[in-house]
């Protein structure tokens, strides 16, 4: 018995209904110019070695993705998945200067941006089309059910209808305004160990079953598929035997209903240039995977990343907030804290951890890989590191304030209890990032992609306000809480 159906054989209406929010657009409907520029762009990016495997975390374990990836998108935007923050290579944008390592790379980024715009327009059309079909259906039902409704209220109804339509349009526009494109590349002939699809016997997977993370709710994901057909190697017989329901030479996207392996999955065959759209809540109700064909294959996956805390503007804004509590005497140059109120202490220490672990360590963990396309991110990273160093100074000032004797005990305990968890978290996270940077997998990466444990400094580095290892500061704080009078000094 078949455990899954090919998309084009899924004729039963039940199956169709379950997958109705998956939309396929065949290559022949996509403008030739898009194919040409995108395919050339992807090849250039691959030739320039801009793609790399991500060293992500799954259930606390380090895992190297089978596919090589590259994020292109709005300048300063990031996309977070599997505990990894990817940083966009900016596509050309008004008012932002981007120096690409070559004109070819710049052209490739422009091609991805043009594809992005095309997919946005197409996604809007598909969704609006469906909306009006729904409205017609509902309108028809309403008319037949309530044929005696008041007749002279037509004007109001019309206005409400138009308002609703334009609200609807705005909502749909937001949910299809892709701000990032996550590009994938895999050459199966160079990747011998691909996992078998476990539930339906669909064969080798390039990407395992998953939901896409970090997206604006109900936003569309649009995917362009480019499989390089010019190279057609012979099919490995053993592989051919293992999958009866799909052509093992072709790439497919696999689809299943979430939390359900009883409903047959779907393997949708993709030809070069085909696009597919995961519409509305599809990504919440379904999982997808990528089933490997035999040729090398690229995909460009366009998403609306939920980036309320994921842009450079955001994190610079946070640093500014933290910095408001730092005062420097213009004459002596001595720094002090403006306020020792708990809200300010908490805010500063929280921002300190955020900039260190969500930005600096995430970025340097990926080595210098972003520099293969452009050195755009290095400037902002230096600025963030400078702000972070000021925050190290702020923590140091706070610790020395706590060390002063003149505090009422209860007040001192309050501040200590406020600060301690942030330092404990910082210590733990520094240890785990350090371990990740030194892992066997990390060391197996090409030299220019190897993780850098940054910021890192030795005790002899007198420029740094505090040491990298916070053990002593943490014991000092714990002792403060244990001592009856609160002012024991070691
Ligand atoms: O390559 C594809 O078709 C989809 C890839 C995917 O699911 C992903 O990158 O999240
Ligand atoms: Fe995905």
Automatic annotation (TrEMBL):
Its EC number is 1.14.11.53. InterPro entries: AlkB-like_sf (IPR037151), FTO (IPR032868), FTO_C (IPR024366), FTO_C_sf (IPR038413), FTO_cat_dom (IPR024367). The keyword Protease does not apply. Keywords: Cytoplasm, Dioxygenase, Iron, Metal-binding, Nucleus, Oxidoreductase. GO terms for molecular function: broad specificity oxidative DNA demethylase activity; ferrous iron binding; mRNA N6-methyladenosine dioxygenase activity. This is Alpha-ketoglutarate-dependent dioxygenase FTO. Belongs to the fto family.
């Amino acid at each position: 018995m078949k455990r899954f159906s090919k998309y084009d054989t899924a004729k039963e209406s039940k199956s169709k209904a379950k997958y109705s929010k998956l939309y396929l657009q065949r290559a022949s409907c996509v403008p030739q110019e898009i194919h040409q520029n995108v395919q050339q762009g992807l090849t250039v990016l691959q030739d320039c070695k801009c793609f790399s495997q991500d060293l992500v975390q799954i259930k606390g374990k380090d895992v190297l993705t089978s596919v090589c990836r590259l994020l292109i998108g709005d300048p300063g935007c990031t996309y977070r998945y599997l505990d990894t923050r990817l940083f966009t290579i900016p596509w050309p944008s008004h008012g932002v200067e981007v120096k690409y390592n070559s004109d070819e790379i710049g052209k490739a980024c422009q091609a991805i941006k043009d594809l992005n715009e095309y997919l946005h327009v197409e996604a809007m059309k598909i969704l609006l089309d469906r909306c009006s079909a729904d409205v017609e259906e509902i309108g028809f039902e309403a008319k037949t059910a309530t044929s005696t409704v008041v007749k002279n209220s037509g004007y109001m109804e019309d206005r409400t209808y138009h308002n609703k339509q334009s609200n609807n349009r705005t909502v749909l526009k937001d949910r299809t305004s892709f701000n990032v494109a996550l590009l994938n590349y895999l050459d199966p002939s160079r990747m011998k160990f691909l996992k078998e699809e476990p539930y339906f016997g669909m064969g080798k997977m390039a990407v395992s079953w998953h939901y896409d993370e970090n997206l604006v709710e109900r936003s569309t994901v649009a995917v362009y598929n480019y499989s390089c057909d010019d190279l057609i190697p012979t099919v490995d017989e053993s592989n051919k035997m293992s999958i009866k329901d799909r052509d093992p030479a072709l790439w497919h996207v696999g689809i299943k209903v979430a939390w359900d392996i009883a409903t047959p999955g779907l393997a949708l065959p993709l030809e070069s240039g085909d696009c597919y759209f995961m519409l509305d809540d599809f990504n919440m109700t379904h999982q997808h995977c990528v089933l490997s064909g035999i040729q090398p294959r690229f995909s460009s996956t366009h998403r609306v990343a939920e980036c309320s805390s994921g842009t450079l503007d955001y994190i610079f804004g946070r640093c500014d907030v933290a910095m408001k509590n730092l005062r420097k005497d213009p004459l002596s140059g001595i720094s002090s804290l403006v306020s020792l109120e708990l809200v300010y202490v908490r805010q500063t220490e929280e921002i300190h951890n955020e900039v260190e672990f969500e930005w600096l360590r995430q970025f340097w963990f990926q080595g210098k890989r972003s520099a293969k396309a452009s050195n755009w991110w290095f400037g902002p990273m230096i600025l963030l590191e400078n702000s972070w160093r000021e925050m190290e100074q702020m923590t140091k000032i706070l610790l020395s304030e706590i060390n002063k004797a003149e505090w009422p005990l209860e007040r001192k305990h309050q501040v200590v209890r406020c600060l301690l968890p942030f330092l404990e978290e910082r210590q733990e996270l520094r240890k785990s990032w350090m371990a990740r940077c030194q892992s066997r997998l990390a060391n197996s990466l090409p030299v220019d992609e190897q993780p850098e444990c940054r910021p890192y400094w030795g005790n002899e580095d007198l420029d740094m306000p505090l040491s990298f290892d916070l053990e002593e500061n943490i014991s000092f704080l714990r002792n403060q809480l244990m001592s009856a009078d609160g002012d024991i000094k070691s």
